[in-house]
Design brief:
The protein is α+β, with helices and mostly antiparallel strands and 411 residues long. The chain is built from 13 helices and eleven strands.
Length: 411
Amino acid sequence: MALPGEGRSNLRKLQAEQEDDWRDAQPGKMPHEYRRDEITQLGKLPYSPYYGTVDTTILWIVTLAETYDWNADTSMLAEARKPLEKALLWIDKYGDFDGDGFVEYITRSPAGLRNQGWKDSGDAIVYPDGKLVDPPIALCEVQGYVYAAWLRAAKIYEVLGETQPAQKLRQKAEELYQRFNDRFWMEKEGFYCLGLDNRKQQIQSIASNCVQLLWTGIVPLERAKKVVERLFQKDMWCGWGVRTLSSQNPAYNPISYQCGSVWPHDNSIIAMGLKRYGYHEEANRIAEGIFAAASYFQAGRMPELFAGIERQRDNFPVPYPDANIPQAWAAGGIFLLIRTILGLEANAPQRQLKLQPDLPEWLPDLELINLSVGGTKVRLRFWREGKQTHWQLLQLDGQLEVLGMSEEQKR
């Protein structure tokens, strides 16, 4: 996506100000994509910009809070105060447009996308029998994103000295936590459903969307184990990574765009969630699969996606013919996997960097240089001795407390 202008306020400048069905825009909504091709300029396509995505606005809030954790820039939060308010209002008014307590999507544009989650291909959302699900659809991971966004926004308001909206957002998050876990959990499968359909019934398909929920924190501890166990069954785990859709679904196709392929960014988010819940080995298992796949692609560059064909001793990851290479999500996924392995958590306002490193056997030594936390540059080395990971602070240009978690604490 190419955005006009420069600086940190680009996306904020493109936040929609009014309803525009042609571009699927509503006030407060962040864009999905921006194109300058001739067909768009002639008004035949709505990408100028196009707002047909249900999650960008929500994830913008999470990104804003995460950025503050790393840079401690209160002026950035002050600049973003009104856009944040508009984004939160969009969730309540336009995201949950039928008032059922969940955010769903449906296109209002004749040229709009049928599906508007991160899996936005027309055939991406299917029932267990392989039939297409008709929108409006409330995807499971989107509810997790909202939960995380409300909690992160509450912290932003506290930094800005506004305790009342912070308390309100935490209360809303708690209510969503209960409501979501009541409606989306499938006890028989030990897994969350893909979403709710236009009849508010569970879409009981097994898909990677559900495992992204771990990253958001909306999964109760007692259910996390079941989710992890289901994740690594052979229909979902192909050895190179987590498939987007179970191979048991009739719609499964390992060389499809989003019905059985492997997406590096999806896997990196899943790994981050596994780490959050203490599944260090499982997170490293995903990282190994993605890193091994990367070694087969030119210059080690991760494509947007590749086929979900089972990994064997004598084969290699099969490219998806039309995958973008390079691709920002995929490239960013590599950095997120490294962060996951090392357990990096910044708290720049308190001048702290927390580490929870767990190097796998296939990555026995790693060094980070020019890591910036609140303007302080740090250089760290990590290495493995036996089954334990050790670390050393090599350079510190500024004031920062680096805190490492012991092996006992990790357990």
